Amino acid sequence: MKHYMPTRILTGTGILQKHKKVFPELGKRCYIITSKSSGRLSGALDDLTAVLNEYSIGYDIYDRISQNPTVVSCIEAGKNANSFKADFIVGVGGGSVLDASKTAAVVAANPELTEELIYKQAWENKPVPLILIGTTAGTGSEVTYVSVMTNKDGIKKSIHNDDLYAVYTFGDPSYTISMPEHVRISTAIDALAHLLESYFNNSSSDLSRAFSLQGVRILYPKLQLLAKHQELNEEDRETVYNASILGGLAINITGTVFCHTLGYYFTEHYHLLHGFACALFTNELLDYEYNNHRDYCDAFFDVLQIDRSEMKELISSLLPETEIHLTEEEIQALLPRYTNNNSVKNTYGTMSVNDIEEILRRL
Question: Where are the beta strands (DSSP E) in 56-96?
Fold first, then answer.
Protein backbone atom coordinates (compact mmCIF):
# COMPACT_ATOMS: atom_id res chain seq x y z
CA MET A 1 0.00 0.00 0.00
CA LYS A 2 1.29 3.46 -0.90
CA HIS A 3 0.07 6.90 0.05
CA TYR A 4 1.74 10.28 -0.08
CA MET A 5 -0.22 13.52 0.11
CA PRO A 6 1.66 16.42 1.73
CA THR A 7 -0.97 19.11 1.07
CA ARG A 8 -2.55 20.73 4.12
CA ILE A 9 -6.31 20.55 3.54
CA LEU A 10 -8.41 23.34 5.04
CA THR A 11 -12.17 23.29 4.45
CA GLY A 12 -15.30 24.96 5.78
CA THR A 13 -17.23 28.18 5.46
CA GLY A 14 -15.00 31.22 5.99
CA ILE A 15 -11.88 29.04 5.98
CA LEU A 16 -9.72 31.58 4.12
CA GLN A 17 -10.17 34.23 6.79
CA LYS A 18 -9.65 31.72 9.59
CA HIS A 19 -6.26 30.66 8.23
CA LYS A 20 -5.10 33.84 6.50
CA LYS A 21 -1.79 33.85 8.34
CA VAL A 22 -0.41 31.16 6.02
CA PHE A 23 -0.14 33.68 3.17
CA PRO A 24 2.57 35.98 4.59
CA GLU A 25 4.51 32.86 5.56
CA LEU A 26 5.07 32.19 1.85
CA GLY A 27 6.40 35.60 0.86
CA LYS A 28 5.61 39.15 -0.21
CA ARG A 29 4.73 38.66 -3.89
CA CYS A 30 1.84 36.50 -5.05
CA TYR A 31 0.81 35.57 -8.59
CA ILE A 32 -2.87 34.66 -8.89
CA ILE A 33 -4.07 32.30 -11.62
CA THR A 34 -7.76 32.08 -12.38
CA SER A 35 -10.35 32.13 -15.18
CA LYS A 36 -12.38 35.04 -16.52
CA SER A 37 -15.36 34.42 -14.27
CA SER A 38 -15.36 31.66 -11.65
CA GLY A 39 -12.90 33.26 -9.23
CA ARG A 40 -14.79 36.53 -9.26
CA LEU A 41 -18.36 35.20 -9.31
CA SER A 42 -17.67 32.83 -6.43
CA GLY A 43 -16.30 35.57 -4.19
CA ALA A 44 -13.06 33.66 -3.70
CA LEU A 45 -10.92 36.16 -5.59
CA ASP A 46 -12.23 39.08 -3.53
CA ASP A 47 -11.62 37.18 -0.30
CA LEU A 48 -8.09 36.33 -1.42
CA THR A 49 -7.12 39.86 -2.48
CA ALA A 50 -8.52 41.25 0.79
CA VAL A 51 -6.16 38.97 2.71
CA LEU A 52 -3.22 39.86 0.48
CA ASN A 53 -3.92 43.57 0.92
CA GLU A 54 -4.22 43.14 4.68
CA TYR A 55 -0.68 41.74 4.80
CA SER A 56 0.69 44.14 2.15
CA ILE A 57 1.45 41.26 -0.18
CA GLY A 58 1.87 42.46 -3.76
CA TYR A 59 -0.02 40.53 -6.39
CA ASP A 60 -0.77 40.30 -10.08
CA ILE A 61 -3.54 38.30 -11.77
CA TYR A 62 -3.56 35.99 -14.79
CA ASP A 63 -7.20 35.31 -15.72
CA ARG A 64 -6.93 33.58 -19.07
CA ILE A 65 -7.28 29.93 -18.05
CA SER A 66 -10.15 28.26 -19.89
CA GLN A 67 -11.82 24.88 -19.59
CA ASN A 68 -9.42 22.11 -20.60
CA PRO A 69 -6.40 24.42 -20.27
CA THR A 70 -3.75 24.35 -22.95
CA VAL A 71 -0.09 23.78 -22.21
CA VAL A 72 0.54 27.12 -23.92
CA SER A 73 -1.57 28.99 -21.36
CA CYS A 74 0.15 27.18 -18.48
CA ILE A 75 3.56 28.18 -19.84
CA GLU A 76 2.43 31.77 -20.35
CA ALA A 77 1.08 32.01 -16.80
CA GLY A 78 4.26 30.47 -15.38
CA LYS A 79 6.55 32.81 -17.31
CA ASN A 80 4.49 35.78 -16.20
CA ALA A 81 4.80 34.64 -12.59
CA ASN A 82 8.56 34.36 -13.07
CA SER A 83 8.76 37.89 -14.52
CA PHE A 84 6.68 39.16 -11.60
CA LYS A 85 9.21 37.49 -9.28
CA ALA A 86 6.41 35.70 -7.45
CA ASP A 87 7.28 34.12 -4.13
CA PHE A 88 4.22 31.90 -4.44
CA ILE A 89 1.26 31.19 -6.73
CA VAL A 90 -2.41 30.91 -5.81
CA GLY A 91 -4.79 29.11 -8.17
CA VAL A 92 -8.44 30.13 -7.77
CA GLY A 93 -11.10 28.19 -9.63
CA GLY A 94 -12.31 24.79 -10.73
CA GLY A 95 -10.28 21.80 -11.81
CA SER A 96 -8.98 23.40 -15.01
CA VAL A 97 -7.54 26.37 -13.13
CA LEU A 98 -6.10 24.20 -10.37
CA ASP A 99 -4.43 21.84 -12.86
CA ALA A 100 -3.04 24.77 -14.85
CA SER A 101 -1.70 26.40 -11.69
CA LYS A 102 0.32 23.30 -10.86
CA THR A 103 2.15 23.35 -14.18
CA ALA A 104 2.50 27.14 -14.05
CA ALA A 105 4.22 26.83 -10.66
CA VAL A 106 6.77 24.51 -12.27
CA VAL A 107 7.34 26.88 -15.19
CA ALA A 108 7.66 29.85 -12.82
CA ALA A 109 10.75 28.17 -11.37
CA ASN A 110 11.91 26.84 -14.77
CA PRO A 111 10.92 29.48 -17.37
CA GLU A 112 12.86 27.77 -20.16
CA LEU A 113 10.49 24.79 -20.20
CA THR A 114 8.73 23.88 -23.45
CA GLU A 115 5.68 21.67 -23.92
CA GLU A 116 7.92 18.73 -24.74
CA LEU A 117 10.03 19.19 -21.61
CA ILE A 118 6.93 19.58 -19.43
CA TYR A 119 5.53 16.27 -20.61
CA LYS A 120 8.94 14.68 -20.14
CA GLN A 121 8.92 16.21 -16.64
CA ALA A 122 12.44 17.41 -17.30
CA TRP A 123 12.77 20.32 -14.91
CA GLU A 124 15.62 21.06 -12.51
CA ASN A 125 14.15 23.49 -9.98
CA LYS A 126 11.36 22.77 -7.57
CA PRO A 127 8.20 24.75 -8.39
CA VAL A 128 7.39 27.91 -6.50
CA PRO A 129 5.08 27.22 -3.52
CA LEU A 130 1.46 26.76 -4.52
CA ILE A 131 -1.87 27.38 -2.80
CA LEU A 132 -5.09 26.12 -4.38
CA ILE A 133 -8.55 27.55 -3.70
CA GLY A 134 -11.35 25.46 -5.17
CA THR A 135 -14.60 26.96 -6.47
CA THR A 136 -16.23 23.73 -7.67
CA ALA A 137 -16.92 20.42 -5.95
CA GLY A 138 -15.94 17.46 -8.07
CA THR A 139 -12.47 17.35 -9.56
CA GLY A 140 -10.49 16.74 -6.38
CA SER A 141 -7.55 18.44 -8.10
CA GLU A 142 -6.82 20.30 -4.87
CA VAL A 143 -5.24 17.18 -3.38
CA THR A 144 -3.71 15.38 -6.36
CA TYR A 145 -0.28 15.38 -7.95
CA VAL A 146 -1.80 15.45 -11.44
CA SER A 147 -2.11 18.23 -14.01
CA VAL A 148 -4.29 17.56 -17.06
CA MET A 149 -3.64 19.83 -20.03
CA THR A 150 -4.54 19.99 -23.71
CA ASN A 151 -1.44 19.60 -25.84
CA LYS A 152 -0.61 21.25 -29.17
CA ASP A 153 -2.49 18.49 -31.03
CA GLY A 154 -5.69 19.21 -29.12
CA ILE A 155 -5.43 16.04 -27.01
CA LYS A 156 -5.87 16.01 -23.25
CA LYS A 157 -2.79 14.55 -21.62
CA SER A 158 -1.66 14.53 -18.00
CA ILE A 159 1.53 14.67 -16.01
CA HIS A 160 1.96 13.09 -12.57
CA ASN A 161 4.67 14.33 -10.25
CA ASP A 162 5.09 14.86 -6.51
CA ASP A 163 6.30 18.39 -7.30
CA LEU A 164 2.72 19.28 -8.29
CA TYR A 165 1.26 19.07 -4.78
CA ALA A 166 0.03 22.32 -3.30
CA VAL A 167 1.33 23.47 0.07
CA TYR A 168 -2.18 24.44 1.19
CA THR A 169 -5.64 23.97 -0.27
CA PHE A 170 -8.68 25.96 0.82
CA GLY A 171 -12.18 24.61 0.28
CA ASP A 172 -15.03 26.93 1.21
CA PRO A 173 -18.37 25.39 0.12
CA SER A 174 -19.87 28.87 -0.15
CA TYR A 175 -17.67 29.41 -3.22
CA THR A 176 -19.65 26.72 -5.06
CA ILE A 177 -22.98 28.56 -4.79
CA SER A 178 -22.38 30.55 -7.98
CA MET A 179 -22.01 27.44 -10.14
CA PRO A 180 -24.78 27.03 -12.76
CA GLU A 181 -26.86 23.90 -12.20
CA HIS A 182 -25.38 21.97 -15.12
CA VAL A 183 -21.85 22.67 -13.84
CA ARG A 184 -22.84 21.66 -10.31
CA ILE A 185 -24.19 18.34 -11.61
CA SER A 186 -21.23 17.72 -13.91
CA THR A 187 -18.67 18.31 -11.16
CA ALA A 188 -20.61 16.20 -8.64
CA ILE A 189 -20.87 13.31 -11.05
CA ASP A 190 -17.14 13.68 -11.74
CA ALA A 191 -16.57 13.12 -8.03
CA LEU A 192 -18.68 9.96 -8.22
CA ALA A 193 -16.65 8.81 -11.22
CA HIS A 194 -13.41 9.28 -9.26
CA LEU A 195 -14.74 7.31 -6.31
CA LEU A 196 -16.01 4.41 -8.44
CA GLU A 197 -12.98 4.32 -10.74
CA SER A 198 -10.66 4.19 -7.76
CA TYR A 199 -12.58 1.34 -6.16
CA PHE A 200 -12.83 -0.76 -9.34
CA ASN A 201 -9.14 -0.42 -9.97
CA ASN A 202 -6.28 -2.92 -10.04
CA SER A 203 -4.25 -0.54 -7.87
CA SER A 204 -6.88 -0.20 -5.16
CA SER A 205 -5.85 -0.72 -1.54
CA ASP A 206 -7.54 -0.84 1.84
CA LEU A 207 -6.91 2.89 2.18
CA SER A 208 -8.16 3.90 -1.27
CA ARG A 209 -11.25 1.73 -0.88
CA ALA A 210 -11.97 3.40 2.46
CA PHE A 211 -11.85 6.81 0.75
CA SER A 212 -14.07 5.52 -2.07
CA LEU A 213 -16.70 3.92 0.15
CA GLN A 214 -17.04 6.92 2.44
CA GLY A 215 -17.12 9.28 -0.51
CA VAL A 216 -19.93 7.41 -2.25
CA ARG A 217 -21.78 7.00 1.06
CA ILE A 218 -22.01 10.75 1.67
CA LEU A 219 -22.29 11.86 -1.97
CA TYR A 220 -25.05 9.53 -3.14
CA PRO A 221 -27.96 11.24 -1.28
CA LYS A 222 -26.82 14.61 -2.62
CA LEU A 223 -26.80 13.29 -6.18
CA GLN A 224 -30.40 12.20 -5.62
CA LEU A 225 -31.24 15.78 -4.67
CA LEU A 226 -29.50 17.10 -7.79
CA ALA A 227 -31.42 14.63 -9.96
CA LYS A 228 -34.63 16.19 -8.61
CA HIS A 229 -33.27 19.70 -9.33
CA GLN A 230 -33.41 20.57 -5.65
CA GLU A 231 -31.27 23.34 -4.20
CA LEU A 232 -28.40 22.27 -1.97
CA ASN A 233 -28.16 23.93 1.43
CA GLU A 234 -24.90 24.84 3.14
CA GLU A 235 -24.53 21.42 4.76
CA ASP A 236 -25.22 19.69 1.44
CA ARG A 237 -22.63 21.79 -0.37
CA GLU A 238 -20.01 21.02 2.26
CA THR A 239 -20.81 17.32 2.00
CA VAL A 240 -20.40 17.35 -1.79
CA TYR A 241 -17.12 19.24 -1.44
CA ASN A 242 -15.83 16.73 1.11
CA ALA A 243 -16.84 13.85 -1.16
CA SER A 244 -14.88 15.50 -3.95
CA ILE A 245 -11.80 15.65 -1.72
CA LEU A 246 -12.24 11.99 -0.83
CA GLY A 247 -12.40 11.21 -4.54
CA GLY A 248 -9.18 13.13 -5.09
CA LEU A 249 -7.47 11.26 -2.26
CA ALA A 250 -8.68 7.96 -3.70
CA ILE A 251 -7.48 8.50 -7.27
CA ASN A 252 -4.25 9.95 -5.92
CA ILE A 253 -3.48 6.40 -4.81
CA THR A 254 -4.92 4.46 -7.75
CA GLY A 255 -5.39 6.71 -10.73
CA THR A 256 -8.52 6.48 -12.86
CA VAL A 257 -9.76 3.76 -15.23
CA PHE A 258 -11.10 3.62 -18.78
CA CYS A 259 -14.04 5.98 -18.17
CA HIS A 260 -11.77 8.99 -17.84
CA THR A 261 -9.50 8.25 -20.74
CA LEU A 262 -12.49 7.63 -23.04
CA GLY A 263 -14.20 10.72 -21.71
CA TYR A 264 -11.33 12.96 -22.78
CA TYR A 265 -12.19 12.39 -26.46
CA PHE A 266 -15.76 13.55 -25.94
CA THR A 267 -14.59 16.67 -24.17
CA GLU A 268 -12.15 17.41 -27.00
CA HIS A 269 -14.51 16.77 -29.93
CA TYR A 270 -18.05 17.07 -28.57
CA HIS A 271 -17.33 19.77 -25.96
CA LEU A 272 -19.03 17.88 -23.15
CA LEU A 273 -18.17 19.08 -19.68
CA HIS A 274 -15.51 16.84 -18.19
CA GLY A 275 -17.75 15.22 -15.57
CA PHE A 276 -20.46 14.39 -18.08
CA ALA A 277 -17.91 13.03 -20.56
CA CYS A 278 -16.47 10.63 -17.99
CA ALA A 279 -19.91 9.64 -16.71
CA LEU A 280 -20.92 8.55 -20.21
CA PHE A 281 -19.03 5.36 -19.34
CA THR A 282 -19.64 4.95 -15.60
CA ASN A 283 -22.51 2.53 -16.12
CA GLU A 284 -20.32 0.58 -18.55
CA LEU A 285 -17.80 0.22 -15.71
CA LEU A 286 -20.48 -1.04 -13.33
CA ASP A 287 -21.72 -3.54 -15.92
CA TYR A 288 -18.19 -4.73 -16.74
CA GLU A 289 -17.40 -5.39 -13.09
CA TYR A 290 -20.78 -7.04 -12.44
CA ASN A 291 -20.36 -9.35 -15.42
CA ASN A 292 -16.72 -10.21 -14.80
CA HIS A 293 -16.13 -9.81 -11.04
CA ARG A 294 -19.56 -10.19 -9.50
CA ASP A 295 -18.44 -10.98 -5.96
CA TYR A 296 -16.24 -7.88 -5.80
CA CYS A 297 -18.97 -5.74 -7.33
CA ASP A 298 -21.72 -7.10 -5.08
CA ALA A 299 -19.57 -6.56 -1.99
CA PHE A 300 -19.25 -2.86 -2.87
CA PHE A 301 -22.98 -2.33 -3.14
CA ASP A 302 -23.74 -4.52 -0.12
CA VAL A 303 -21.50 -2.43 2.13
CA LEU A 304 -23.15 0.78 0.93
CA GLN A 305 -26.67 -0.68 0.95
CA ILE A 306 -27.25 0.81 -2.51
CA ASP A 307 -28.91 -1.06 -5.35
CA ARG A 308 -26.68 -1.26 -8.44
CA SER A 309 -29.56 -0.80 -10.87
CA GLU A 310 -30.76 2.20 -8.89
CA MET A 311 -27.32 3.79 -9.09
CA LYS A 312 -27.23 3.22 -12.84
CA GLU A 313 -30.61 4.86 -13.26
CA LEU A 314 -29.49 7.81 -11.15
CA ILE A 315 -26.36 8.29 -13.24
CA SER A 316 -28.38 8.16 -16.46
CA SER A 317 -30.85 10.72 -15.10
CA LEU A 318 -28.04 13.15 -14.33
CA LEU A 319 -26.51 13.02 -17.80
CA PRO A 320 -27.62 15.55 -20.42
CA GLU A 321 -29.27 14.34 -23.59
CA THR A 322 -26.63 13.80 -26.25
CA GLU A 323 -26.64 12.79 -29.89
CA ILE A 324 -23.35 10.92 -29.92
CA HIS A 325 -23.00 7.90 -32.18
CA LEU A 326 -19.52 7.03 -33.37
CA THR A 327 -19.06 5.67 -36.86
CA GLU A 328 -17.06 2.50 -37.32
CA GLU A 329 -14.35 4.62 -38.93
CA GLU A 330 -14.16 6.86 -35.85
CA ILE A 331 -13.97 3.86 -33.53
CA GLN A 332 -11.14 2.25 -35.46
CA ALA A 333 -9.26 5.56 -35.56
CA LEU A 334 -9.62 5.87 -31.78
CA LEU A 335 -8.52 2.38 -30.77
CA PRO A 336 -4.74 2.99 -31.01
CA ARG A 337 -5.20 5.65 -28.36
CA TYR A 338 -6.39 2.98 -25.93
CA THR A 339 -3.92 0.23 -26.81
CA ASN A 340 -1.53 -0.31 -23.88
CA ASN A 341 -3.27 2.59 -22.14
CA ASN A 342 -2.59 2.73 -18.39
CA SER A 343 -6.14 3.73 -17.48
CA VAL A 344 -7.53 0.78 -19.43
CA LYS A 345 -5.03 -1.52 -17.72
CA ASN A 346 -5.97 -0.05 -14.34
CA THR A 347 -9.58 -1.23 -14.69
CA TYR A 348 -10.21 -3.99 -12.14
CA GLY A 349 -9.67 -7.25 -13.98
CA THR A 350 -8.13 -7.69 -17.40
CA MET A 351 -9.85 -5.19 -19.67
CA SER A 352 -8.53 -5.10 -23.23
CA VAL A 353 -8.83 -2.79 -26.21
CA ASN A 354 -11.41 -5.24 -27.59
CA ASP A 355 -13.62 -4.41 -24.60
CA ILE A 356 -13.15 -0.71 -25.34
CA GLU A 357 -14.16 -1.28 -28.95
CA GLU A 358 -17.44 -2.87 -27.87
CA ILE A 359 -18.12 -0.11 -25.34
CA LEU A 360 -17.66 2.57 -27.99
CA ARG A 361 -20.03 0.71 -30.33
CA ARG A 362 -22.75 0.77 -27.69
CA LEU A 363 -22.78 4.57 -27.42
Answer: 58-62, 88-93
- Classify domain 181-361 at the CATH topology level: Dehydroquinate synthase-like, alpha domain (1.20.1090)
What DSSP state is assigned to residue 77? H
Contacts of 328-335 with C-beta under 8 Å, sequence gap 24+, read: 331/357, 331/360, 331/361, 334/265, 334/360
- Reported as a pLDDT band with limits 50, 70 and 90, residue 223 is very high
Domain boundaries, the chain: 8-176, 181-361
Contact 31, 62 (CB under 8 A): yes
8: three-class secondary structure by DSSP: strand
For position 307, what pLDDT does the model report? Answer: 98
Domains 8-176 and 181-361 share a fold: no
DSSP codes joined into one string, 175-222:
GGTTS-HHHHHHHHHHHHHHHHHHHSBTT--HHHHHHHHHHHHHHHHH
CATH 3.30.110.10 fits 8-176, yes or no: no
**Closest alpha carbon to 240 in 137, 316, 124, 323:** 137
The pLDDT score that the predictor gives to residue 301 is: 98
Rg, the chain, Cα only:
20
Over the stretch 90-143, which tens digit does the pLDDT of each residue have? 999 999 999 999 999 999 999 999 999 999 999 999 999 999 999 999 999 999
Count the neighbouring beta carbons within 10 Å of the beta carbon of residue 227. 16
Partners of 70 in the β-ladder: 150
pLDDT in tens, 263-284: 999 999 999 999 999 999 999 9
